[in-house]
Amino acid sequence: ANGDMANYLIPGKLVKGMGGAMDLVSSGSKVIVTMEHTDRKGNPKVLPRCTLPLTGQRVVSLIITEKAVFEVKPDGAGLLL
């Protein structure tokens, strides 16, 4: 994981749309993401690489889930638990 963020509506899925995410990631502020740790099937949502179109590249500083808190390394070399 390198701090990339994708926050899009996925066709056929019940997820929130982009909203103000693009404004937030372009502001230069520290970005803290709160999210569910897994999807409905139990698959992890924190991924080594983003598989959706990016809202922001290397913009996330901290990821908070119900199971863990991850700090994104500044050089994009992974996460610290």
Give a written overview of the molecule.
By secondary structure, the chain is mainly beta. The protein has one helix and four strands. A four-stranded mixed beta sheet has the order 1-2-3-4, with no helix packed on it. It is globular and about 30 Å long. The two termini are 12 Å apart.
Question: What's the SSE blueprint?
Answer:
Elements: H1 21-25, E1 31-34, E2 60-64, E3 69-72, E4 79-80
Parallel strand pairs: 1-2
Antiparallel strand pairs: 2-3, 3-4
Any key phrases for this structure?
81 residues; mainly beta; four-stranded mixed β-sheet; 1 helix; 6% helix
Concise synopsis of the structure shown:
By secondary structure, the chain is mainly beta. Helices cover 6% and strands 19% of the residues. The model has no long low-confidence stretch (mean pLDDT 84).
What is the alpha-carbon Rg in Å? Answer: 12 Å
DSSP helical segment count: 1
- The parts where pLDDT drops under 50 for at least 5 residues are none
The helix content, as a percent range, equals under 10%
Strand content: 15-25%
Biggest sheet descriptor: 4 strands, mixed
| SSE class | mainly beta
Going across the biggest sheet, name each strand in turn.
1-2-3-4
Please state the overall shape, judged from the principal axes of the Cα atoms.
globular
Count of individual beta strands: 4
Q: What separation lies between the terminal Cα atoms?
A: 12 Å
Q: Mean pLDDT, rounded to whole units?
A: 84
Series of H and E elements: HEEEE
